[in-house]
Each structure stands twice: as structure tokens, then as C-alpha cells.
Amino acid sequence: QQRGQPRNRKSSMTQRLLNYVNGQWTESKATECLPIINPGTAEHFADVPLSSAQEVDTAAKAAAVAFREWRRVPAPDRIQYLFKLKQLLEENLDFLARTCTEECGKTFNESKGELRRAIENVEVACGIPMLMQGRNNEDIARGIDEHMFRQPLGVTAMIAPFNFPGMIPFWFLPYALATGNCMIVKPSEKCPVTQQRVFELIDHLGLPPGVLQLVNGARDTVEAILDHPVVRAVSMVGSTPAARAIYARSAANGKRAQCQGGAKNPVLIMPDADMETATRILADSAYGCAGQRCLALSVGITVGEAKEPFRKRFSEATQARKVGYGLEEGVETGAVISAESKARIEKLIGVAEAEGASVSVDGRGQKVPGYEQGSYMFPTLLDHVPPQGEIAKTEIFGPVFSLMHVDTLEEGIAMVNDRAFGNMACIFTASGAAARQFRTETHAGNIGVNIGVAAPMAFFPFSGWADSFFGDLHGQAEHAVEFFTETKIVVERWPKEWSRKF
Length: 502
Ligand code: NAD
Known about the structure:
Shape: globular
Largest sheet: 7 strands, mixed
Distance between the termini: 73 Å
Strand order of the largest sheet: 14-15-16-13-12-18-19
Radius of gyration: 24 Å
Bound molecules: nicotinamide-adenine-dinucleotide
């Protein structure tokens, strides 16, 4: 049996992916489809339909009907579905991880890791009976009490990116469900298969039809969701231009929105850092998931005497990284999402060269034996990258690490803060004082101190800032609970003399 292969599992997936609407697997009427190609092998294994506005309308109306009853189901009963979902996700974890690797190229262990975080969010949302409690005060004035309740919004939607096809919908979905909302998930058109598999499990939960739905598609499908009058709230994760556009259109249509955007994450390497640990951790942050994490570190700023020892070690680590098909043992860096993405990354390395950077480890033009058709980009180290150039500011989204240098911690912090994104910033140091100054003064929502991927656990919000986030309340934890509920204030007076005497 192969890694992650299911045992005796019946699949709803044909060549063409299905939508899941009103509790039924539904063939989209779309005439246009996009091919889903395994980036590690170049095998074409599914097609995703680009669902129409009418199909979005059907799903939105089914959700609106379902909401009337669903919101009245007591929270302790709603979370029973999540306990069951956790169980099903655990039982099918290897199979889902395999699907995730097949459609997006990351390694099997990386896929398992993202699914663990998905499950963790289900677990946290099981605490909803406490998490969505309101608050109250007796006697705000003589004989008058005031209460704040949290009520669900209604129909919500989640628009997902390609790079964590198993995990990212789960930064939102369990909280939407548990707080009493209905949700339409629109997976990435580049990686829609894992969510198809997840919804095969959701189909077994026995949820009322219309509470959770899956509608496949791309930009037009999203715009139909954003323009639909019944949809109250939109959660989106993706590139900054898309996040900005979706946030603006949602707001123009009077919807609540939270849109997590792109990134270009820097790390300061101080001279007192343990260079071996820093190199090992940073190589995994920069080159793991083929550099396609929104929390990948892609800019290394060495401070003072850190320059030479770090550069030498990191160059060796870059060359030593094992690139290959994500389902094979021992592979550390899998494929990037597509041949177009590989070509774009290679082109950007050329831009860096033209700007004056040196390519000290060049990952262009290489192939993985046995997988020659795959979209493999080998780790690449750029040195002397000009801080004001295009490459220092562009999200490359591939296994490319840019080195820069400053003389002091203060200069380093200024360089970290001189950019549009604010998803994550990290420091490697043995000094508590340096770490403290960094964490206090740095403009980023997720900070790592001797950590390479400061990804918040499910019980903390995922706190991107600046151009990495449009909105107020982030995904996960109490932010998600607040996002998916609106507060209702009740001020009440019950004079004794009005009561019937018994
Ligand atoms: P993308 O922006 O191309 O697509 C994301 C989703 O938005 C897809 O479902 C797509 O169909 C839809 N979409 C794209 N453009 C649209 C438009 N103009 N109007 C309406 N809908 C549109 O992103 P991607 O390439 O799938 O994902 C990679 C990006 O996501 C990277 O920039 C990465 O940094 C970012 N990302 C951010 C986070 C975070 O938490 N901040 C997490 C993961 C990924």
C-alpha cells in the first residue's frame, strides 16, 4: 500500500470535480473547466468547473433557508458535528495528505502538517459554547440589567488560495459552523481536490442540507459571491492584489470581510545567533513547501559580523537541500505549483541579476531524475540584493532567499519596517534585549524569535498586518468567533409590581 492510499474508499470524484450544494453532490453546468495537473509528475488528473453566478445563487439561497433552522440548534449540539468531523479527518489524514501533495507539490509530511493545523482549528471551535458567550451587568441603573449576546450572521463564504488547500478553509469553517452560520467554500481553482475530499467527509456528518457547501470556480465565481445579496461575510486568503480587490468589493456591497494577503518576510541574523541552528531552521522556512508559504522567510538581513559565517553555512544548506517528488521518502523540497510559476520564478531571478544581485546558488534549469516533466525549482540563494530594488519588494513565492547586510540592529529594524507587507518578521539572536527591541519595534503581525515559521496555533489569531491583511478581525480563535457573530445588546427592566402575585 502506498503512502496515504485509502482503504476501500468510495470516491465521489470523477475526472470532473463536483459541487456540493444543498446536501447533494452536483455536476456544475459550467462549460468551462481548468485542468488540475500534479506539479510533481505533470499528470493531468482532474478538471475543475468554473461555476456560474446562477450556481452561486442556488447555493446562497439554499444556505439562507438552512440558516433559519441552523441558528436555533443549540451550540452544544452544533459542536457534535465538529467532534465527528475531527474523527473523520483523523481517520483519513494520510489519504487527504496524499491528495494535497498530488495537487500542490509539497512533501507528504508538509501536507500532514497542514492537516494537523486544520484539525486543531476544529478542536478549538468545539469550545464555542464558552467562546461565544456574551456578557452582562446587573443593575446598570436601578432595576435595569444589560446583556450582550453573540448571534450568527447568516450566510458566509470562504475564498481559498492554492498553497494550503487542506488547512486554510479551516481557519474559518469550524468557527462559522459552530457559531451557527452557514458557509460556502470556494477552493482555489489551482488546488480544489483536497476540499472535494474533505467535503466527502462532511457529507457523512449528517448536517442539515445547505449548512456547508462547496462551489468550484475562479474569479467570476468569486465575484458572484461578493455581489450576492444573501452573503453577509467573506473570508479570503490569497495574493495582495486579489485580497485588496475582494475586500473593496465586499465592503462596497455592505459585507463584512477579512482578507489575508501576500507577504515578503524578513529575518535578522544577529552576530550572537547560534549559526548552525539558525541555518537549519531558516533553510526549512525559506525552502520548505518550495517557498510557497505566506510565512516563508525570503529575505535574510545579516547584522555586523554575522555576514560571513551565515552566508557560508546558508549557501551549503541551500545546495544540500533534497528536491524531489513530494510522495517520495527523504524529499525536503517538492515541486512549485505549476510550470508557469517555475518560469515566473526563474524570470525574477534574472531581474535580481539585472539589478546587481549575485546568484550564489542557482536553482534554475534543473530537473529531478524520474520526474523530468515536473515543475521543480531548486533552492536559489541571491546575495547583495539591493534593498530598494524590485526583488527586495516582490513576493517571489518560490524557494529563493535574498541576502542583505546592515551594521546594526537599529538599521536592521528600519530595513524590516521599510516595506509594504507585514505578515511576519523574525530575529535570530542570543540576546533577550535585542529580541525584545525587535518584537516591540517591528511592523509585522506575526513575530518569530529564533523561530522560522511563526505560524499561530489555532487558539491564537493569524495576525498579518499592512498589505498582508485587509480587515480588522483575522482568521482563527477568538477573532474568528467575533468575525462570525454580531453583538446584540439587550437592556431590560422587570419591575416587581408588574409580576402576577402567586
Ligand atoms: P490568488 O490571489 O491568486 O487566489 C486566491 C483566491 O482568490 C482564489 O480562490 C482565486 O480564485 C481568487 N481570486 C484571485 N484573484 C481574484 C480577483 N481578482 N477577484 C476575485 N477573486 C480572485 O492567490 P494564490 O496564488 O492562490 O495563493 C498564493 C497567495 O496567497 C500568495 O500571495 C500568498 O502569500 C498568499 N497567502 C497568504 C496567506 C496569509 O495568511 N496571509 C496564507 C496563504 C497564502
